[in-house]
Structure formats: structure tokens, C-alpha cells
């Protein structure tokens, strides 16, 4: 089996996705990090995504709960 290196991979090549011109094909998938305190995104959440962003990259931010019971897990604040 031939060894594949980063230089051989299309992972780091540009990609056009509709009106988005991405500089590479690495995408950050949405995750629930629970950094939106009381359901309100704040500076910590902005910093989290800023640290993971790249010029011409694509990341999908986490969803937010639309009601206190929407997260699907117990919270003492309810």
C-alpha cells in the first residue's frame, strides 16, 4: 500500500462550495460545548471559535437551545 502524505492529499487544496471559496477542505463540525451561559452566547464562545478559525476555512457553530428543556439533559438552573 502506498504511503499518502499531506502533499498528496486534496484535503489542503481549495474548494468552491456554492458562493463560498474555501482555502482548504478541513471543516469544523458542530459540537455542543455549552459555552453559551444561560443560553446566551458571549465572549467565551466567540473566543472558542476564533481560536479554531482559519482564513478561507469553514466551521459550523453549535446550536442553541430554544427553551430550557431543549438541551435534552438535566440542568440545576431549570
From TrEMBL:
SUPFAM superfamilies: FMN-linked oxidoreductases. Its cofactor is FMN. InterPro entries: Aldolase_TIM (IPR013785), OxRdtase_FMN_N (IPR001155), Oye-like (IPR045247). One of its GO terms (biological process) is jasmonic acid biosynthetic process. One of its GO terms (cellular component) is peroxisome. It holds the Pfam family Oxidored_FMN. Residues 11-73 form the NADH:flavin oxidoreductase/NADH oxidase N-terminal domain. It comes from the Eukaryota. GO terms for molecular function: 12-oxophytodienoate reductase activity; FMN binding. Gene3D superfamilies: Aldolase class I. This is NADH:flavin oxidoreductase/NADH oxidase N-terminal domain-containing protein. Belongs to the NADH:flavin oxidoreductase/NADH oxidase family. Keywords: Flavoprotein, FMN, NADP.
